[in-house]
Each structure stands twice: as C-alpha cells, then as structure tokens.
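Notes from the 1:1 (GR / supervisor)

We went over the backlog. Supervisor wanted to see one worked example end to end before approving the batch request, so GR pasted a single chain during the call. The sequence is below; no edits were made to it. Supervisor asked that the structure be written out right there so they could see what the output format looks like.
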Amino acid sequence: MKCGGSTLAALPASFFEDMRQLQEEGIVTVIVHGGGPAISETLGKLGIESGFVNGLRVTNEAVLDVVEMVLSGQINKEIVRRIQLTGAAALGLSGVDGHLIEAKPVANSHEVGLVGDVTKVNAELIQGIVNLGYIPVIAPVGLGEDGGQRYNINADTAAGAVASHLGVEQMVVVTDVPGIMKTVDGEKQVLPVVSVAEIEEMIASGDIYGGMIPKVRAAIACIQGKVQEVVIVNGAEPNVLSKVLKGTGIGTRIVR
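Structure output shown during the call:
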C-alpha cells in the first residue's frame, strides 16, 4: 500500500482499525509512505531552499538530512503509533535499515541531485517482519550499492518496487479522491476499471487533468514485475482496505 504524506494526516482511526482486522484474518498490509508537505514545511522553517523538477524534489545533502528526519522520524513513527493504538503491532523502518532499499542515481540526477531509482529490495527482511507478526511501515530513503550514499526516493517509485520485489499482484494507492473520475452525460462518475492505454488517452483529452495526472502516472509506474493492477481509493471511505481486497468494486482499478 502506498500512502501519501498529505493523505496520512486526514486518515480516520477506522482506517487503521481496518488494517488490524485484516491482519487478524491473515492479510498483512505493507505500507510505503511519503511526506512531501511535511518535508516542505520543515525545509521552510529551516530556511533551506528546494525546488521540483517534473515532480521530483531537488535534493542535496542538506535537503536529504531533512527528508530523512521527517520521513524516517516524524511521519514513520506517527503511522506506527496510529496502527499500534488499534492493538495491532507495527514496525517502522526506512530503506537504509538492513539495506532494505538499494538505489542508484536517477537518469536526470544532474538536475535533481541525490534522488534515487530503486535497484534492489530486501524482500526477505520485509517477509521476516511480517512472519514475526508486525505490519511493516517503510520510509522511502535508500542507500547506494556501497552503503555510503543516501538517496531520496519518490514514494510511488519505492512502493512500486517494494510491491514488485515482494511478488504481490495488487497495490493499493491511498489518496484523498474516490478514484479516476470521468464526466458521463454531464455527471462525474468514478471509473471502476481503466487500462494504462486509456489513461494516456484521458490525459490527452483533458479528462484527467491537474493534480490527478501525477497520481495516475505514479500508479502506472507501480505496475511492474508481478504487480498486475493498482487500485486508487479514498482513504476516508469506511473499511476501504477490506472493500478493495474483497473486490467490492470501490475506487479505480488500473490494469495493464
């Protein structure tokens, strides 16, 4: 499951309760989270400048210190706390721990600096945490192959790579929208299923616009390896995770 930083703050307690319920039924959620707004806020307070290029944060060592502090510290532990309040067990870690996520510089690193593309995920470590009865909560900071250099990794990229290396077939992207909308006969409706090709057509026609474009592009990027589909859902919907996993037709399924 990928959860955006801005979405997390608004999630109701029932969302985490649903997660506990699923764990009791033998379905464990692996969470990869972002934290863009909180990172921007902290950078602002510290007077550190940082821009964006095509949705990726320009990252130097000073920015990276803040990224790691906010993601691995503040946000990661907040999610762990909220899960544990339901009585479930959670374990927070970042891609640095146990070489969980290895990365190399992105192709346009000359523009964005220390931003990484995932090259390897230690799936055995995640499986081990699950086997011990914990819900893994992962912050997307990675390490270079030599273990010395840290990289800021886009949360969608990291989530797609983790899902693919774990060999799961379905990934859930938790957002603040009910899915991909299309105007049909003057009314906005959530599309239940959409293919990657159809999304590109909808972006070209203007049916998908604004802030939804990066969301769907990120979801498409998650369809890699064994991941067959990505479901975009609104986290505020009651029992949203259970509904997705039981196939009740909630949100939008993006299929290959």
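Supervisor's comment: Residues 42 and 66 are 7 Å apart (CA to CA).
Batch request approved.
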